[in-house]
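Review this today:
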Amino acid sequence: MKRYDKLIFVDSDDTTRAPIAKTIMNSKFLLGGLDVCSRGLVVLFPEPMNQKAEAVLISNGYQTKEHAATQLTQDDINERVLILTMEEGQKAKIWGNFENASHVYTITEFIRLDGEVLPLYGEPLAEYGKCYETLEALVSGVVIQLNEEELRK
């Protein structure tokens, strides 16, 4: 039996890093089916994806679907959900504010690396491109980790 039914990438506002990671992840092959989505910790209204993030995805061959930022809620969380944050502070906030958040890691921690995926507020388009490249590598690591867990069963 697979360990997780759902993977949620969490960012501060669900407009940049988390939707990029979700889009990349949905293009990958997983041995076990997994519902992949993104959420934000502070979402005041359903904003679209950041235009620079969308431009970077399109330039890398992804068809972007309509995205509306969505708030992370208690209903999203249970023992069958894997939550991957971009920063340590986001992970701590989830542990502090939500019950049954048993599988919460930074994306780097999950694949046994150090560091964080830093925010892009006010950064030029080139920084969004670098973030995309970082997330592409990290998400590929997540896929390897999840597929290896599936094979060990």
